Amino acid sequence: MDGALIVLTGEAGVGKTSIAEACATDGAARGFHVLSVANYHSARAPFGPFLEVMRMLARERPEAVPAAAGDRLVFERFIGTAPVAGSEQPLDKRRFFVVAAEVLERSAAVTPLLAIVEDAHWSDPESLEFLRFFAPRLATAPIVVIVTLRTDADDDALAVQIDALSRLPVTQRHTVTPLDDRSLLTIITLSAPNVSLDAENAAALCRRAEGNPLIALELARDAASGAPLPSSFVTAIGARLRNLQPSERTAIEAASVVGRTFAFSDLQALLNLPRTTLISAIRGARDAGIVEETAIGFAFRHERLREAVETRMLAVERSDLHRRRALALEALGGDAALLAMHWAAANEPARAAPFAERAGDEAMARDAFATARARYREALAGSDDDAAVRLEPKLARASESLGDAAGAARWYDAAAQRARAAGTDDGRWRLRAADSQYRAGHRDEAMAAVRLLLAETADASLQFDGAALLAMYHAYAGEAEFAEHFIGVARGYDGPRDPIRALACLGARRHGDPPRRRRMAGGRQRCGRDRGGIGRRGPDRDQSSQLQRHGTSPRQAS
Description:
With 558 residues, the protein is an alpha/beta fold. The protein has 4 domains: 4-175, 3-Layer(aba) Sandwich (Rossmann fold); 181-231; 385-436; 441-558, no CATH class. Helices cover 63% and strands 8% of the residues. The strands form 2 sheets. It has a 5-stranded parallel β-sheet, with helices on both faces. Helix 5 links the parallel strand 3 (113-118) and strand 4. Residues 514-558 have low confidence and may be disordered.
């Protein structure tokens, strides 16, 4: 049996979840092992939904967990059952991808697997990256993955990822479109048999629902109570909230801040209400069709219901509830990314910043560089200058890890400027900024920045690093004489030497070996075209003047 990746797209409430649930029911009846997870707007942890899938399999299919000690350690560290902090062995995202794929395949070898991932528009970038890695293996594995996402999600990066997934041979993409009036009325008849609509109200309901079954059902439920047909979905939810008791309305508004799913203890921590009052409040919200009881707590019947409840509150009410939620999570030692989100929603960016930074550090430790960069940006927005000194280099390193050399150069340069303003500039960030500029294709600017730094610094280790870089840059350009010159310059400096720069110097030496010089010299003119602009141009055309600035002639350099 071959597998498939099924991507269901459509507007909120159009029926994607209903289709996924029907697939789950049918799959279970056909002998599939069904796993269902969801993404939430309030929490975008690295690999979030797939870590949840891995944890489920570890509990339900322990035989699928790797037996080899090394792979088992990778698996347990990523899913959080083994410690990460303080370990000498860093986490390796690529290796985890391989291990996780093998866990899924071993499980599917026993029983075909159906994994449902809802609301992928709120997924973290690393989860989509894993899906792109794993999807080609579905061609030979009895695994079906169903992904749902909104088409109205305004996220260009997500659109790129989904388009890439959609082009894979194993992918089937289906857009769930609005229903016609007849289909809407059929759904109402099946789901709400106590609703009786005359022709006029039926036509009005279909017109206001615009083909969206969730909206149609919510409007029909209000009509069933004998109230006039609401003019819109938001009006329907607002009227339903007004019919609740004050304590019931307070509880449901607090729940909307917690998220799509919530526990009784979450509301206890937020609200100063007696237990019996809180139970009665949740019952009232359930009877009003806003929330439902689940195996592990409670949940809004649909994300649009939660959104409608939250948006009806005053901004000051929302921020106050987010503040109380953040304080409650802090007392429990809650998730850093979640704490950052709640403090930011409480309009307290300074309190959100350290948690966002911690979430970024945790993401970097898992090779989740895109998530780390997003968290560091959030932290920087609420930080003072002292914290920015730490955050800008972290942003640069995250950008480097993503292959964004231009972004890394900008952040290293920002760190260098901040250090100069504070009188603490030791040249390290300037050198890293120049190196990133070079890798971004700006050779002339990078080499000029390194030469300027060599002229200004008295730090021997920094001089060695700079000279080693210049040697390597000239070697890459096929300029053997100049590479040899800067190798000699580097060797003339005493003091600590960065091993990476020492390797660069060694690499430049190999590029400049006499047996290869003629071939390299012949390739100089081609280098600018073949290497994306890393060749002779701009101020580096006059090579003699470059070496003369360092007190050496080209002949002497060779």
